[in-house]
Amino acid sequence: MDIQTIKQIEQGKAQAQSSGYTRLAIAFLFIAVVFAYSSFSHSDIQNNTFLIIGAVFGAYMAMNIGANDVANNIGPAVGSKAITMFWAIIIAAIFEGAGAILAGGEVVKTIKKGIIDPGMIENPEVFIWVMSAALLSAAIWLNLATSVGAPVSTTHSVVGGVMGAGIAAAGFSIVSWGTMGKIAASWIISPLLGGVIAALFLYFIKKKIVYKDSMIESAKKIVPFLVAIMIMAFSTYLMLKGVKKIVKVDFATALFISAIFSIIAYYFVKPKIARTAQKTEDTREGVNTLFTIPLIFAAALLSFAHGANDVANAIGPLAAINDAVVYGGISNKASIPFWVMSVGAVGIAIGLALYGPKLIRTVGSEITELDQMRAFSIAMAAAVTVIIASQLGLPVSSTHIAVGGVFGVGFLREYLDSSETVFIQNVRIKFKTDKKEIEKLQNEFNKLEAINKKSKKEYERIVYLYKLIDEKEELVKEEKKEFKSAKQIKYVKRDAVKKIVAAWIITVPAAAILSAAVFFMIKGIVF
Asked: In what helix (H) or strand (E) does residue 213 lie, and over which residues does it extend?
């Protein structure tokens, strides 16, 4: 290694270190602004110290949500190269923030849908310690998961935090173990549903477009239909899960309105797809380009729904602290003030911009290779799975669904390619058999050629053998070509799967243990 190379390596390390310091400085600046605002805006409230501390923890939590959880919505779009990292972050930040502020939950069950019974905590101060410990521990766990590149559920992190601090404060009886059982079930339900639905969408696209003689002609018919389904799925998803604050509708009404939207979208999109298809090559790459715009819209809509639904839940403990400090009591439900929603929305955008790319790359390219068709299938699975699960009353995690969708399309590719591997093996066997048969025919041909005086029957046999050998050799050439062009298996990266699944399984217990430790630390400091 020469001196110039060493210098370049050192410069790269210095730039990376400088960039790391800059990101850290921006993160601390945001926390400082939140600290200052919560201090001055609530200076007239007695015992506001924990509200200020909670606001700081909430800001830290929001940035970690942006760094980890948002990647699931936009990772596939970036991994498929439908959109650049820069524009993905811009779009996600805008729509996540808009979802949190415009359509964020009007009321949030701060004890996470009955994870603990707040009635068992008589002292409001102890309840504040529990929520503070839950916020900090969930944020720390998300930070650790992000650092190792493991996408985990924000909701499960908060659930574990609330459970652990609640147990530390009032014992195991405070926990609703039935609810915890449902959450544990979601570790299996969410990725399985997401994976199966994503795989089904991708298989449908392959059968109806990719495996056809004219892919472009098939795409002209199928893509508008898929876009219509996308509009229907996302409209239903947003009405049921994302815009509850703006309008509340039941499933049947949401589905009916969405069906009208999808019909309009179909007739609007169909001529545009046809015009675009005329200028597109009849190749897989060409067909992929037709999914680019729908995929970008899907990423934006997923971000909006995530901001509206999940962010409010994630910053619920901060709303609980605000409720307890401002009104001096404990409530099962706490309204989320605008400033708390703003901390969540801005913090997510900052965390995504500063530390999101690592998880975006993990979801988008480090599990399996994605293109626009596969990424579109994953986005569709995220919307459809949430709708199905909500109607069946099944607990699901948006993070697990999205990553499960990535697993699903990856394993489908592996299954389909394994079929090609069987084909390769069959070709190899057939190739060997044909070579032996050619050698046998050639020997017979040579023996007949060596005869001095040949009968008419022998001449006819020679002509027939010559023709047969020629045909067999041509067939072998074709088999060689097929053998060389056959794809090799593209495995889902097993190490990534193991790491992510392990992180999912330990998220709730890890956050709980961490939260209990933080609670006892706070209790020790106060007393």
From this structure: none
Bridge partners, residue 104, by sequence = none
pLDDT (tens digit, 9 = 90+) per residue, 466-481? 777 777 777 666 656 6
Supply the pLDDT for residue 478. 64
308 vs 175, higher pLDDT:
175
Confidence of residue 408 (pLDDT cuts 50, 70, 90): very high
CA distance 146 to 155: 15
Taking only the tens place, the pLDDT of each residue in 94-151 is 888 888 777 665 444 444 456 888 878 878 888 888 888 998 999 999 999 988 888 8
For 105, left (φ over 0), alpha (ψ -120 to 50), or beta? beta
Residue 211 DSSP one-character state: T
Contact 477, 442 (CB under 8 A): no
**DSSP per position, 99-157:** HHHHHS-SEEETTTTTTB-GGG---HHHHHHHHHHHHHHHHHHHHHHHHTT----HHHH
Question: 235 is written with which tokens?
Answer: 């409209």
Please report the pLDDT score of residue 31 as a whole number.
Answer: 94
Half-sphere exposure of 66 (CA within 13 A, CB side): 31
Mean pLDDT of all residues belonging to the chain: 81
What Cα–Cα distance (Å) separates residue 238 from each residue in 245, 354, 478? Answer: 11, 28, 53
SS3 helix, strand, coil % of the chain, rounded to 5?
Answer: 80, 0, 15
Neighbours of 94 (CB within 10 A): 15
Query: What residues contact residue 278 under an 8 Å CB cut-off, 6+ apart?
Result: none
SS (H, E, C) 373-386: HHHHHHHHHHHHHH
Nearest to 137 by CA among 520, 517, 514, 439: 514
170-203 pLDDT, tens digit each: 899 998 888 888 878 887 888 999 999 999 999 9
Closest C-alpha among 248, 247, 251, 183 to residue 390: 251
Report the Cα 61 to chain-centroid distance in Å: 20
Pairing of strands 107-109, 333-335: antiparallel
Domain boundaries of the chain, sorted by first residue: 22-418+489-526
